[in-house]
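Consider one such protein record:
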Amino acid sequence: MNEKRRMLLKGMALGGFAGVGAGISQTVMAATGSASDRQLFVLVNEALSSSAFIDGVAASGKSLKTLVADTGMAFVNAFNKHLSSQKKLHILGLTDDASAVIILDLARSAGASVKWIGHHTLETHQSIHGVSSVDSTRSCTVQLAKNLQQCGQAFMLNETHRHVPSGISLQMPGNRQAGTHQWMAELGYSLAVPNGFFSEPALPLKNNSVSPDSGHFVSFSIET
């Protein structure tokens, strides 16, 4: 694909997402109030404890607690204790597959509501993302798409949305540059502040975070 055609397609895609963002703004603003009065609780694997995802969540300015997630009984017991407390929690995370399966199963068993699940496969020169959203996290999909485009790395993104069967689907070629840090930071921020999509915060383009350039990870947003 030549450069002129690539830029044309990119411009069309950006314009399309701008339209989607405008179309869902009222729905999202009406649906995001529930997270604002909850304690923010972040689950990450030890390898992601200093990642850009954490930086993005912290940029929300909210008070947060972090728990290192794994598949051991110590974590399971600690997480169950939080789920069974009387506190209203907004639980965000980015973990490996095995940890995510345990977290989501425990959360659902406790009656929590899963607002977002994202499957992220990172390769050397591209990333593949499959997300499942509800009204209150729909803007997170739009923001993720915009940031993946801005990072410049080749990617595929598909969304399943509760009320829109077709969801969002996009595939873009890239410039073969790694771009993990920025979209991970923006994902953390947008999950912490779903309606923050409309204020478009200026997160740093570069940081000192240690973020993976390959692997498979699961992001999630849960409310108790």
